[in-house]
Design a protein that fits this description.
With 294 residues, the protein is α/β, with parallel strands linked by helices. Helices cover 28% and strands 21% of the residues.
Length: 294
């Protein structure tokens, strides 16, 4: 091979080498940019998650104790926030939905007496899940179907397997699960079937009057009747406000959706829902947080 041929081979090899190196550098830069975009996206979602604590805490302080639901409400659910906007040419949305844990069947009913199991929705009465030796939380259930969804993400009918809408993991709060602190049913937010079952269990009457009061936007406690049995002898407490609320937080940004399940409980220094304590002076704290599988 003459010098010209050798030179051409050398130039061709050098061109290939430069081209491969350039492609490698470009690929590396693309991967780095994609990684930086992902890190930036994760940071934005994390910031939104942190910012969402403020409206939750404000809702607990200012709204939770004034909540009522109509008699035909299928679950104790309230829409707290649904905010959508555009930022950096990407759509963003934050949704917060609340469920009253005192408007659900208590977790102790799962392995309780037949009388306590009467508080469970019919679809859950056949379950044999034992909870007495487990720390409560929807993460104990294997399917992400345990977590209820926001209103516009579900069918109109109630899904019996969405345990988070019907089974309270913190009623009573785990630290108070003693004979002296039985579970409570909030007569202002519980579905009608649970109100009737709780009144029967407590030896009380007045279910129709309670539900009628709720239809008028008033406290259901005004319709409560007293029967022969004493409240202190009942395995449950009948109350008008709740010390435990669940929240589902959904954050969407740039086509990515992340969701969390949060449980807040109210710390009281003695007393209960029927005492003279001012509930607004009590402290709400985050008891559990779970990332909901996609």
């Amino acid at each position: 091979m003459n010098r010209r041929g050798v030179a051409m081979v050398f130039v061709l090899g050098l061109t290939v080498l430069v081209t491969v190196s350039t492609l490698g550098l470009a690929r590396s830069m693309a991967l780095r940019a994609r990684s930086e975009d992902r890190i930036g996206l994760d940071r934005i979602i994390a910031d939104l998650q942190q910012a969402a604590q403020s409206p939750i805490e404000s809702w607990l302080a200012d709204v939770a104790d004034e909540t009522y639901l109509p008699a035909d409400a299928a679950e104790p659910r309230f829409d707290v926030l649904d905010d959508a906007w555009s930022w950096r040419d990407h759509a963003a949305r934050v949704r917060i939905t609340a469920w009253d844990q005192y408007g659900m069947a208590p977790w102790t009913a799962l392995d309780g007496s037949p009388r306590m199991r009467s508080l469970l929705p019919e679809a859950l009465r056949v379950r044999s899940t034992q909870t007495s030796n487990l720390r409560p939380g929807l993460d104990l259930f294997t399917s992400n179907n345990a977590f209820p969804e926001p209103r516009d993400n579900r069918a109109l009918q109630v899904h019996p397997q969405r345990l988070g809408a019907f089974l309270a993991t913190h009623n009573p709060p785990w630290s108070r699960a003693t004979e002296e602190t039985p579970p409570a049913i909030n007569l202002n937010t519980a579905p009608a079937s649970l109100v009737r079952a709780a009144l029967r269990l407590a030896g009380r009457g007045g279910a129709d009057a309670i539900l009628e009061q709720r239809e008028r936007g008033r406290s259901g406690l005004g319709g409560l009747e007293t029967a022969a049995s004493k409240q202190s002898e009942s395995p449950i407490r009948l109350v008008g406000t709740s010390d435990a609320w669940s929240f589902r937080l959904d954050i969407e940004y740039a086509g990515v959706r992340r969701s969390w399940w949060l449980v807040y409980i109210r710390d009281r220094q003695g007393g209960n829902n029927n005492s003279g304590d001012n509930p607004r002076q009590q402290v709400w704290r985050l008891a559990q947080r779970h990332a909901i599988p996609s």
